[in-house]
Amino acid sequence: MTMFAKRQSKPARLYLAVSLAGLMALLTPNGMASAEEVTGRLPDASRVVSIGDSITEIIYALGEEGHLVGRDQTSTYPQAAQKLPDVGYMRALSPEGVLSINPTAIIAVEGSGPKETIDVLKKASIPFVFVPEDYTGKSIPAKIRAVGTALGVDEKAEKLASQIEKDLQAAEDATKNIKNRKRVLFVLSAQGGKIMASGTRTAANGIIALAGADNAITEYPGYKPLTDEAIITAKPDVILVMDRGGDHSSNNADLLANAAIAATPAGKDKKIIRMGGQYLLGFGPRAPKAIHELAQAMYGNELGK
């Protein structure tokens, strides 16, 4: 028996044909697509579409939401953003949806959508600003500065970025003397009893590290189904789950009903932490608060000692 379950295959051709996928692969960390990339200030920021929840959140935090005419489906914070036209899920966005609102520019987080979609938008000569993302503390102020430069509000962005840096440093200082770092298993889903968990190079992995803990799974990048053997071997002290609402006690009971989860230190102690997905994993202006909240839930009175 292998340590990790097989990754499920995706009907890639159908996926591309039906949805053209979206802007979420506009630029991968390996630099997959170039499009009408703009470095620095946008030539015309009067009608901007934001792709990525952190990008939208940053624009609102800067007080520059007046530029926005559209946002992707993940951009639901702040609540006012939900009143903007939704151009689709960032990984399954149609060019028609973007073009229909006549944008003058697109600001997209790094890692955004397949070349097929970009080629269509490229022909429309829509400038893009690609904002780097590597799920580290440094990436958050870097994103703020990049968005500020794109919109021509560098001074505002610098002020916000500097405050975020201070807040991140405070969160780091709170956990620097923790002697026994918690091992955390981030569970993305547990449908049908199958545990889908985070490995490395994910927002979950990044936020766990920033909260002064260790990811219990380091054998693979991204998200993958785990076998019972892998869960038990991981020996997590904490199970971290995205809060999707509903009856938490019932959801926790379902997790603990998994024999492998129940056999771990986290399962035996019933140590399950639930936090809002975008709040926890967004890597935007709210990240320092989310980091501190997660650290508090894991370490309690040990913080700051």
TrEMBL record:
The record's annotation in SUPFAM superfamilies points to: Helical backbone' metal receptor
Q: Known Pfam families for this protein?
A: Peripla_BP_2
Top-level lineage group? Bacteria
Q: Which residues form a coiled coil?
A: 154-181
What keywords were assigned to this record? Coiled coil, Signal
Q: Where is each Fe/B12 periplasmic-binding domain found?
A: 47-302
The record's InterPro entries line, in alphabetical order, gives: ABC_Transporter_SBP, ABC_transptr_periplasmic_BD
Kindly indicate where the leader peptide sits in this chain. 1-35
Q: What is this protein called?
A: Hemin ABC transporter substrate-binding protein
* Species of the source: Phyllobacterium myrsinacearum
Q: What is the lineage of its organism?
A: Bacteria, Pseudomonadati, Pseudomonadota, Alphaproteobacteria, Hyphomicrobiales
